[in-house]
Each structure stands twice: as C-alpha cells, then as structure tokens.
Amino acid sequence: MKRFSIITEADARVLEPGATVELLPGGHVTPLALDTLRDRRVTVVHLDGSDAPALASLAPPAEIRTVAIASDHTGLALKRMLVERLRGKGLRVLDLGTDSTDPVDYPDTAAAVARTVAHGECDAGIAIDGAGIGSAIVANKVKGVRAAVGGNPTLARYAREHNGANVLTLGSTLVSLDEAGTIVDVFLTTAMTEPRYMRRLLKVRQVEQA
C-alpha cells in the first residue's frame, strides 16, 4: 500500500481506481486532489487516526436494543420463536409480519426489514425465508444495508465482526429453531471493533454510491 506525506492532484491521477493509500501523520491532501480521489474512488487511510470517528460511524451499533424482524409464510414459526426469545431478553422487537401461513413474497418482507434498518428505526434486522438467500439479495439492494445469510454461528460472527452486517437472513428450511436462536444470539452480541475491517466498509460504500 502506498504511503504519502502529501497527495497532489498529479499523484491522485495516477492511482488505480478503487485503490487504498495511507497518509502519514501530519500529511496533507490538496483540494484538487480531493476531487480527483473522490472521482477515482480512492480511499485515504489517515495513519494518525484522525479518520477513526468516520470509520466507527460506518460500523453497525455495537449494542443492539431494537430489532426489526419479518418472514415469508415459510418462516412463520421461526419468526414467532425469535420474537418471543428476543423480547424475553429485553430487546424491543418490531414485528413486520407475516402473521399467517398465507403465501407472501420474500421481497416484500425482506425490503420492509431493510428499509427499517436503513432509516435508523432499529439497530439490526432479521429477515427469514426458505433459504435466506433471496432475502439477503433483496435487503442488499437497499442503500446502507449490509445483509448476510446466517447459516451457522461462525458465519454470523464473521458477518458482524468482519463485514459489519446490519441485517441477518435465515433459511427456515435449513436451520432448526434451536440453531436459529444460537445464530441470532451470536449475531446480535458480536461487535465490529477492528479499524482494518471498518476501513473496508469505506470501499463497500464507494461501490454502493458508484
């Protein structure tokens, strides 16, 4: 990774689009270079730690107090169990449906969860369908949402700790009620704290805004 004490427009023009570079303590980026860096989607990491607050703001809340949850008709039993479980732990749960076994499409339920998270109405979301894959695809279409399928506790931990996921999706036909409860517990109690992982979220946001 290239390091600079000063980044000029000439420097910025020759950097690879999407690259990440480091700015030494006391370093400076010229105004013209800022525009070029932005256009080329180059991430500048400040080695003096001055970018720490901005990086932290990209990470999902470390303490989860409010959770939005929804499922299609295949996940009704799983959703009901999780709502009861989470409320029993003292969390505020926004139950966005469905409430019957009548067929409902996963794009509708997953989008409801994703939009609630994106609007800041809750700290995390859970979307359930048969395999969890469709809900993840839909949720990730909503700006500001990072959804991951939680197939097991390890994936749930990585989704939060490494990738800053704010929506967990579950496959009601792939995990048991007990397994799902453990997966959700791990997801909601794992925080993203490593600056090196948070810096990668800058690149995720750049792709999202491209």
CATH fold label of the largest domain: Ribose 5-phosphate Isomerase B, Chain: A
Number of domains: 2
Can you name the CATH architecture of the largest domain?
A: 3-Layer(aba) Sandwich
Which range best describes the helical content: under 10%, 10-25%, 25-40%, 40-55%, 55-70% or over 70%?
40-55%
Q: Indicate the mean pLDDT.
A: 93
Instruction: Determine and state the CATH class of the largest domain.
Output: Alpha Beta
Q: Care to give the gist of this entry?
A:
Helices cover 43% and strands 20% of the residues.
Describe this structure in words.
- The structure is a single chain.
- The protein is an alpha/beta fold and 210 residues long.
- It is built from 9 helices and 8 strands.
- It has helices spanning 9-13, 31-39, 52-58, 76-88, 106-118, 133-139, 153-161, 177-189, 195-209, and strands at residues 3-7, 20-29, 43-46, 66-71, 92-95, 124-129, 147-149, 167-171.
- Helix 4 (76-88) crosses helix 8 (177-189) and helix 7 packs parallel to helix 8.
- The radius of gyration is 20 Å and the shape is elongated.
Features:
single chain, 210 residues, alpha/beta, Ribose 5-phosphate Isomerase B, Chain: A, 2 domains, 5-stranded parallel sheet, 3-stranded parallel sheet, 9 helices, elongated
What is the strand and helix layout of this fold?
Blueprint: E1 3-7, H1 9-13, E2 20-29, H2 31-39, E3 43-46, H3 52-58, E4 66-71, H4 76-88, E5 92-95, H5 106-118, E6 124-129, H6 133-139, E7 147-149, H7 153-161, E8 167-171, H8 177-189, H9 195-209
Parallel strand pairs: 1-2, 2-3, 4-5, 4-6, 6-8, 7-8
Helix pairs in contact: 3-9, 4-8, 5-6, 7-8
